[in-house]
Every structure is written in structure tokens, then in C-alpha cells.
């Protein structure tokens, strides 16, 4: 059985860049690795509904924290078998966002912390009820909300189809979300966490070794 590793962080933190660096480092060390990113836009009807809602579609759907949270959860539920199969076939499975994203953003929208009702609800729905695989470890790619916002703005201006959505455009939400992420990591929510400085960059080979050979 391989290891399920999740990369978390604010929009614009650099999760895709870190995923690519870890993939290379793992390949170079002889490990088999595959990746999956959430939401699965273009593959899952639930993910597509999320994207449309975040860009002002479907009336007031985006205003419902629990409604959006359930769509995110259903997107992952649809990929549960794919994730389980990937873990059986590879040494490492890297996920760009997972259950903790739902917990962090929903709690932040409701002005709750990591001990609040929304985080408990996410765990009950996604892990206990939907039976999603629990990560072996999670990586928090930590950057300041200001740096994340600057990167998201730059990405929106240079990449086709990457216009900022309602969550990315809410600076106060990003600040609260960063705080909840820190709390989740400190509490080892679901599994142990590694905290990586996303401003200075990470030592991908060293991080890859710690993922394959923890402790």
C-alpha cells in the first residue's frame, strides 16, 4: 500500500508548483507517484456546479456554506474509488486539496475555528459517512494572505480560465482561512501535518524523503 499525501494551502499558495516538484523528487528517488487535484473541474458534475456558483451562477447557492461544502464533499466521494485504487498501485499519491480545504474554508466563512461545528460536520460527512480514505500525512504550504492574493491576481491575469472566484476575491476570508489552516495543522487534524514555508520555497527532495520514510 502506498501513502496518501495531501497538499493544502490558500488559493495562490503554490500548491501546484509544490506538487510538480515533489513528483520529480519522488520519481528521481525511484518511487512511483500519481496526483489528483480537487475540485475536479471538467470531470465531476458537483465540481462544475461549484465553479459555476463561485462565478455567480445558480442564484444564491454560493451563499450557503453547507450547500457548497456538500458539493465539494460529493466531488470527492465520486473519486473515492479512484483514490483507493491509486494508493494500491503507487508508492505515493499526491492530492492537491482534500477534506481539510472544505473544513478550513467553510469554518472561515462562518467565522468559526478548527474546534467549531463546521469542521466536525465535514469530518462526519466526508470521512465517517462517505468513507473517504484518511490521509497518511498533510502538507500545509503556508504563505501570508497578502502573498497568496498577489499570486492569485497574477495568475488570473496570465492564465486562461483562471479568473478569480468569489472566495479568492475575499481578502478577509483568506485571512480567516489561513488561521483555521494553522489550527488544523497544530491539532494534527485527521493525520500528522508538515508545515512548509511557501514564501522561501521548500527542499523538495528532503520533503519527499520525509513523506516516504516518516519519522
Key descriptive features of the protein:
P-loop_NTPase; 215 residues; five-stranded parallel sheet; globular; EC 2.7.4.9; alpha/beta; 51% helix
Explained architecture:
- Helix content is 51%, strand content 13%.
- By secondary structure, the chain is an alpha/beta fold.
- Helix 3 (65-77) runs antiparallel to helix 5 and helix 3 runs parallel beside helix 6 (117-129).
- It contains nine helices and five strands, in the order βαβαααβααβααβα.
- The protein is globular.
- 40% of the residues are buried.
* CA distance, first residue to last residue: 18 Å
Care to count the β-strands? 5
Helix/strand/pairing class, anyone?
alpha/beta
**What share of residues are in beta strands?**
5-15%
Mean pLDDT across all amino acids: 92
> So what's the overall shape?
globular
Please state how the strands of the largest beta sheet are arranged side by side: 2-3-1-4-5
The run of helices and strands is: EHEHHHEHHEHHEH
Low-confidence segments: none
Largest sheet: 5 strands, parallel
Q: Total helix count?
A: 9
- Work out the radius of gyration: 16 Å
Range of helix content: 40-55%
Amino acid at each position: 500500500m502506498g501513502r496518501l499525501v495531501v497538499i493544502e494551502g490558500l488559493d495562490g499558495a503554490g500548491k501546484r508548483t509544490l506538487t510538480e516538484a515533489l513528483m520529480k523528487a519522488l520519481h528521481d528517488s525511484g518511487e512511483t507517484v500519481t496526483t489528483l487535484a480537487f475540485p475536479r473541474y471538467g470531470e465531476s458534475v458537483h465540481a462544475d456546479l461549484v465553479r459555476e456558483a463561485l462565478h455567480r451562477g445558480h442564484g444564491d447557492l454560493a451563499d450557503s456554506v453547507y450547500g457548497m461544502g456538500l458539493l465539494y464533499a460529493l466531488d470527492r466521494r465520486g473519486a473515492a474509488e479512484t483514490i483507493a485504487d491509486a494508493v494500491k498501485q503507487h508508492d505515493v499519491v499526491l492530492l492537491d486539496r482534500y477534506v481539510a480545504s472544505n473544513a478550513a474554508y467553510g469554518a472561515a466563512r462562518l467565522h468559526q475555528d478548527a474546534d467549531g461545528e463546521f469542521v466536525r460536520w465535514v469530518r462526519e460527512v466526508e470521512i465517517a459517512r462517505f468513507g473517504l480514505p484518511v490521509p497518511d500525512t498533510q502538507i500545509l504550504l503556508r504563505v501570508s494572505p497578502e502573498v497568496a492574493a498577489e499570486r492569485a491576481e497574477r495568475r488570473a491575469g496570465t492564465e486562461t480560465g483562471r479568473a478569480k472566484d468569489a472566495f479568492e476575491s475575499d481578502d478577509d476570508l483568506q485571512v480567516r482561512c489561513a488561521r483555521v489552516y494553522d489550527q488544523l495543522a497544530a491539532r494534527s487534524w485527521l493525520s500528522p501535518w508538515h508545515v512548509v514555508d511557501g514564501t522561501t520555497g521548500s527542499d523538495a527532495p528532503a520533503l519527499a524523503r520525509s513523506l516516504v520514510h516518516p519519522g
